[in-house]
Specification:
The protein is an alpha/beta fold. It has helices at about 1-25, 40-55, 60-80, 140-145, 150-160, 210-220, 235-240, 305-310, 320-325, 330-345, 365-375, 380-390, 400-430, 440-445, 450-465, 480-490; strands at about 90, 105-110, 115-125, 130-140, 175-180, 185, 190-195, 225-230, 250-255, 260-265, 285-290, 435-440, 470-475. It is built from 16 helices and 13 strands. The strands form 3 sheets. Strands 1-11-10-9-12-13 form a 6-stranded mixed beta sheet, sandwiched between helices. Helix 8 (about 305-310) packs across helix 10 (about 330-345) and helix 10 (about 330-345) runs antiparallel to helix 13. Bound molecules: alpha-D-glucopyranose (GLC).
């Protein structure tokens, strides 16, 4: 990352130097006088208007989407099935108590939900604070493209180097496993993977008991570690914040993928009805539900030509429509597809043919998209440097760059506002006076402007709909890791 940024600055510095030389030669073009627009910038205006029409949602439309989502929540909650067809699965986590903050002990957590995974040793001293030691590793392609024993064997090996003291009857640890995929749970420490999301395709895991697969590999290495809970990252994020905030009843992730969890009355969760204590649920019983709302696809979510293209080329066509508009795995790709469409229509990069790299799937990452969008230089020289350096695109005009930046902004703003509709849907569902929404994930934390746009849109929806909720949307530090420890501590801790 540091090298990347240094590279960009070097590129920009070179461009600035060239620019100064042009100044010195007196050859730099003067800007058009009197605010007159060039033909191309007029074209940009029309294109930008088109983009807005195609991708923008008004507050009213967002409210409608939120209401549609909430109706799907209710349907999913009432249903006892979590079949492959279920729109929004609404999976009970089997966590029926929020942490008090007084939990104590030392626990392991394993956080897997993207191509990186983390191992954490977490100490809870009993006052709501946490002490963390962690390490991160990348899942290599051989593992991602392999089978379940490649995947869980690799993770167990990393665990072995992280806590060597647990081997051969050594120190005993309880572990919370944050596995951020749709897992249909049958107990707090049991669940089968419903389907892969976020571009995963490791064989032999779908429909299998995930905890057993990992525990088997741990046992094979003679480690004294017992997996006590499997949780989703949204659930972990909620639990982590709940250690210190009793209004936290919603957890949200906006990273590679996108999803929410919230605290629900247990009696409203069809898939949890077999857990009814003898005489039926008490009014106060609750359970955290992992919505898996990335799969929402209500008709109010307009799918444009590029959304359809993206879906068709994805590993899970016809699924995860909300996620495909909002999350980091897809935003850069949507921009790339739009660039190709506009270039084919002769509206972008007119000087010469479009560089081949634009036609390669995944060639523009969401990270790079963020850098393009963040360029505030009047000549957009960072954009120019990135185009040359990463996208083999030379000789772009200022109009090209301005338009490209608008495309990025259009896609990220739509993502933030559509994400906000998801938050609004959870607020409609939980119906409380004060709600803290704990958020984790790289897009929310790092993408320029994203969290402002999302927060603004949520506030607007609350105001315009008259919902009586005061919401606080907070950044949850290390949510998915700490939450797993909190879940285990709430089960076994002092
Ligand atoms: C995907 C997964 C979901 C996870 C989310 C965020 O939507 O299916 O389980 O919570 O990504 O990581």
């Amino acid at each position: 990352m540091a090298t990347f940024i240094a590279g960009i600055f070097l590129g920009v510095a070179t461009i600035l130097a060239l620019d100064q030389r042009r100044h010195a030669d007196g050859k730099k073009k003067r800007p058009p006088a009197g605010g007159m627009r060039s033909k191309h910038s007029m074209m940009n205006m029309t294109n930008i208007t088109w983009l807005h029409k195609e991708f923008h949602y008004s507050n009213k439309e967002l409210i409608k989407i939120g209401e549609e989502m909430q109706r799907d929540f209710a349907k999913g909650l009432a249903s006892v099935e979590t079949g492959h067809k279920a729109e929004i699965p609404m999976i009970p986590s089997y966590i029926t108590r929020l942490p008090t903050g007084r939990e104590k002990g030392e626990y392991l957590a394993l956080d897997m939900g993207g191509t990186n995974f983390r191992l954490l040793k977490i100490s809870l001293p009993g006052d709501g604070t946490t002490l963390i030691r962690s390490t991160k590793a990348k899942l290599p392609d051989s593992v991602l493209n392999g089978d379940s024993s490649d995947l869980f064997g690799f993770i167990a090996e990393k665990l072995l180097s992280f806590v060597p003291e647990s081997v051969d009857g050594g120190k005993q640890y309880d572990l919370g496993f944050t596995f951020s995929f749709p897992v249909v749970q049958t107990a707090i420490d049991q669940g089968k993977l419903l389907r892969w999301t976020k571009g995963f395709k490791t064989k032999g895991v779908v429909d299998e008991e995930v905890v057993s697969l990992l525990q088997k590999e741990i046992d094979a290495r003679n480690m004294n570690i017992s997996i006590k809970a499997i949780i989703n990252d949204t659930v972990g994020t909620l639990m982590a914040r709940a250690l210190t905030d009793k209004n936290c009843v919603v957890g949200l992730i906006i990273g590679t993928g996108c999803n929410t969890a919230f605290v629900e009355e247990a009696s409203r969760v069809g898939k949890f009805s077999h857990m009814t204590p003898e005489g039926g649920f008490k009014k106060s019983d609750m359970v955290i539900v992992n919505t898996e709302m990335g799969n929402f696809s209500g008709p109010k979510l307009r799918r444009t030509r590029v959304d359809k293209l993206l879906d068709a080329q994805s590993l899970n066509p016809g699924m995860q429509f909300w996620e495909k508009m909002v999350s980091g795995l897809y935003l850069g790709e949507l921009v790339r597809l739009l660039v190709v469409v506009f270039a084919e229509e002769g509206k972008l990069f007119l000087r010469g043919d479009l560089a081949e790299i634009w036609k390669e799937k995944g060639s523009l990452s969401t990270y790079t998209m963020g850098l393009l969008e963040a360029d505030e230089d009047p000549e957009l020289r960072v954009v120019e440097a990135i185009l040359q350096r990463d996208m083999n695109t030379f000789g772009s005009s200022l109009n090209d760059r301005t338009f490209l930046k608008s495309i990025c902004k259009t896609i990220s703003k739509r993502a933030a506002r559509v994400a906000a509709a998801g938050v609004f849907a959870t607020l409609l569902q939980v119906q409380r006076k004060r709600v803290t929404v704990a958020v984790d994930g790289s897009i929310f934390k790092l993408y320029p402007m994203f969290h402002h746009w999302m927060r603004d849109a949520v506030e607007m929806m609350i105001q315009e709909s008259g919902l009586q909720t005061q919401v606080e949307i907070v950044d949850a530090e290390d949510g998915s890791g700490v939450g797993a420890a909190a879940a285990v501590a709430a089960l076994v801790g002092a």
